[in-house]
Design goal:
Blueprint (H helix, E strand, L loop, with lengths): L10 H4 L13 H15 L7 E2 L8 E2 L8 E9 L3 H8 L5 H14 L4 E11 L4 H18 L2 E9 L9 E12 L14 E6 L8 H11 L6 E2 L5 E2 H5 L7 H8 L6 E4 L4 H5 L8 E5 L8 H10 L3 H5 L6 E7 L4 H10 L5 E8 L4 E3 L1
Parallel strand pairs: 4-5, 11-14
Antiparallel strand pairs: 1-2, 3-6, 4-6, 7-12, 7-13, 8-9, 10-12, 11-13
Helix pairs in contact: 2-5, 4-5
């Protein structure tokens, strides 16, 4: 008797259970729960110009009425591989501040007041606890900068990120009066360079930092007397300073000709960006004491001084350029505002570079 030909069952027949988005690795309910928590964090950051709240498809923000001819200034950035050190150390609280700082400090260079901020958080599988810690930091950074956290995106993308990994991006928009834009065009030889201290490496140079940590096999959790009883992890993950409020307050009292946010490339690469073509900086290396964490990195990584200065901020987080005659008043005003400024050097005639003395 002829045997009947067996037919293979389809994949759907072998697995009768209907598939859901959660089966594919995306938990919509977890995302919704995070949005509910974010709403409470966002509320204290609101400005009167914000129209509506979190949850819409787009954020609506009015221009503050005090600006007659407003110019919008935008900036975007991330935290870089500092994320990897934070993930490995399971320390997430400062990352959100880092994210805000890297964006708002950049737009501050033009004299802009930050208005609002949006974030993008991407991961393979959403960890509610980690995401909430990061977003709490973002809200904290927005409060420090005086800008509203008006929205963002949390993207769960299974298969694209390793277990526990995530990435961050931030977007800031600020406003400055058309006639008050600070662009460096008025800088001339004889102007003074005023430095504001960093809180550590901020969010730059971490590919090299992680290389040094790997080579030295250092215990990042060990507290050391050389670091004032703090650990390497604490120093390296210290959040980036946000300079917005003291600098904007100073701009109301002192004429500032140019500013530089000292990020990747250090003073060497960032300061000339705000100079006219015929101006250079003469920086006095004796004018400040390099923080111990940078000395440790230089020693353990055998990093030469020139490489340190073009990779890290080495303790200089932000630089303002004022007329030489205004330097003392500028220093006094910054100290009154709670800052610890110092004269970093002066502007000289030269080919748009930095000379170290």
């Amino acid at each position: 008797m002829a045997q009947k030909k067996r037919r293979k069952k389809s994949a759907a027949a072998r697995s009768p259970k209907p598939l859901t988005y959660r089966d594919a690795g995306v938990d919509i309910d977890a995302g919704d729960a995070l949005v509910d928590e974010i709403a409470a964090l966002v509320k204290p950051t609101m400005r009167p110009e914000v129209v509506g709240g979190v949850g819409g498809f787009g954020a609506l923000v009015r221009i503050p009425k005090k600006y007659r001819v407003p110019v919008l200034v935008s900036g975007t950035d991330g935290v870089g591989t500092k994320l990897k050190l934070a993930i490995d150390s399971k320390r997430y609280d400062g990352l959100g501040v880092d994210l805000v700082a890297m964006c708002v400090n950049d737009i501050l260079v033009s004299g802009a007041e930050p208005l609002f901020f949006l974030d993008y958080y991407a991961t393979g599988k959403l960890d509610h606890k980690v995401a909430a810690a990061v977003i709490r930091g973002i809200a904290d950074g927005c409060r420090q900068a005086g800008c509203a956290l008006v929205g963002g995106e949390t993207a769960e993308m299974p298969g694209l990120y390793g277990k526990g990994d995530f990435d961050l991006a931030g977007f800031a928009v600020g406003v400055v009066e058309d006639g008050a834009v600070i662009d460096g065009k008025a800088i001339v030889p004889g102007d003074a360079l005023i430095a504001l201290p960093s809180s550590g490496p901020h969010s730059n140079g971490y590919a090299l930092i992680r290389k040094v940590l790997s080579r030295s096999r250092a215990n990042v959790s060990r507290r050391l007397a050389a670091f004032g009883g703090r650990s390497l992890a604490e120093l390296l993950l210290e959040p980036t300073r946000i300079y917005v409020k003291p600098v904007l307050a100073m701009l109301e009292r002192i004429r500032v000709k140019g500013m530089a946010h000292i990020t990747g490339g250090g003073v060497t690469e960032n300061l000339p960006r705000v100079f006219p073509r015929d101006c250079a900086a003469r920086v006095d290396l004796r004018s400040w004491e390099r923080p111990a964490v940078f000395d440790w990195l230089a020693r353990e990584g055998r990093i030469e001084d020139a490489e340190m200065r073009r990779t890290f901020n080495c303790g200089v987080g932000f630089v303002l350029v004022v007329a030489g005659a205004d330097a003392d008043r500028a220093l006094a005003e910054l100290r009154r505002l709670g800052e610890r400024p110092w004269i970093l050097g002066e502007v000289v005639r030269g080919p748009q570079n930095v000379e170290y003395a």
